[in-house]
């Protein structure tokens, strides 16, 4: 950011209009083979590649709270059971933080599952229900009959290869003791369903309605400010924002909310945006100083051609394609976008903070950035930022000493760029006995001004704002969703 727009009020109106004009969610559902929950888990390559499973040996994010400001989260999804500890709707269209009926209803659930999904599946939930109860009073014949029925149920749930889907050691223990271990069908980390990077962190769901005009309440600009403030007031350690505008500038009304997060030591993580949505450059809120902006890469760690914007605000890159995630109703699907890269980084930040609770939000950000695997140009690359996320090193690795001057803050930016108008001083009449003679009446002489050449920067901002509003620039990174969504099919 080089400064506030020349006309703050006009720029704010144009930005607000563009943010809510036309959701660019180029979603496409494509055919895919039927998949069990463990097959969805197998597609989460970033768990191994980014050192997540190694970091779990130290922490799984217990005690941390991630606020997901999005379209709402389905807390009844098996992989999110027990994860959502609170919520709010700031649009007037919903009830609490549950999904709001709009074009991207599933988006918030997808995001939350990558941040803090528990890794359980519908199958695991069904088995858990089967083994609830007291079996000690059954005689041997009754127990054998029950066990035969139980194995039949397992085959019905998982198919003919059900033995490969359950923890056989836990199953044997259950048969011998008649006391079902809690993780009957999954190991300590969960071996089926989509699991989040911080599977023991808690989720706060704050739902928005991205519709213009909003028939139920305030517009997007107002909703986001309220959502950030609510998240801070309700115990969020990290705020995930997988949404954004096509503008580098942000409404002045956001200053107070994001300053509130900064002053209360809350880390804000935001998606950089998706090229497929027309966002070639990073847009707000990812451009706000202090916010950790996340770019997207594919499995080979190449910057995504469709799912990652670029700019000097980029802090770090993480997986954005191909992704999998949970959707309302107990299903899973495939999707792409920096909307998914952001919660992977939010989950990583939760692991860092859980393992190092003495750190400040800025120091957590420092660990995440300074341990990234270097990619792109030397220094901070406009596509990769500091590099690709390395969760294991961020949690436990050696890092250079923290230097606060290396990390700009919103407070400093506001001090420099949002300076208030100098109050006019009262003019007093010249005393008659002062000996001062007033000048001649007439128009005052214009003050001399230094000539300056016109630059691209003089007109680029206003033109971009106007063009974006007229062309209905995309709103959310919201997966872009260029989702390549694949709904789960029954086997």
Topology record:
Layout: H1 8-20, H2 37-42, H3 46-49, H4 52-55, E1 65-70, E2 84-89, H5 107-116, H6 122-130, H7 140-158, H8 168-177, E3 202-207, H9 220-233, E4 238-241, H10 253-263, E5 267-271, E6 292-297, E7 314-319, E8 323-327, E9 331-335, H11 338-355, H12 361-370, H13 391-396, H14 410-417, H15 456-470
Parallel strand pairs: 1-3, 1-4, 2-3, 4-5, 5-6, 6-7
Antiparallel strand pairs: 8-9
What key attributes describe this structure?
15 helices; two-stranded antiparallel sheet; 9 strands; disordered N terminus; Rossmann fold; single chain; disordered C terminus; 491 residues; 2 domains; alpha/beta; 10% strand; seven-stranded parallel beta sheet
Would you give an account of this structure?
It is a single chain. Helix 6 runs antiparallel to helix 7 (140-158) and helix 11 (338-355) crosses helix 12. This protein has a 7-stranded parallel beta sheet, with helices on both faces. The two termini are 51 Å apart. It folds into 2 domains: 8-119 and 194-411, Peptidase S8/S53 domain (Rossmann fold, 3-Layer(aba) Sandwich); 122-177, no CATH class. The protein has 491 residues and is α/β, with parallel strands linked by helices. Helix 10 links the parallel strand 4 and strand 5 (267-271). The protein is built from 15 helices and 9 strands.
Task: Provide a quick synopsis of the model.
Keywords: Hydrolase, Membrane, Protease, Serine protease, Signal, Transmembrane, Transmembrane helix. With about 500 residues, this protein is α/β, with parallel strands linked by helices.
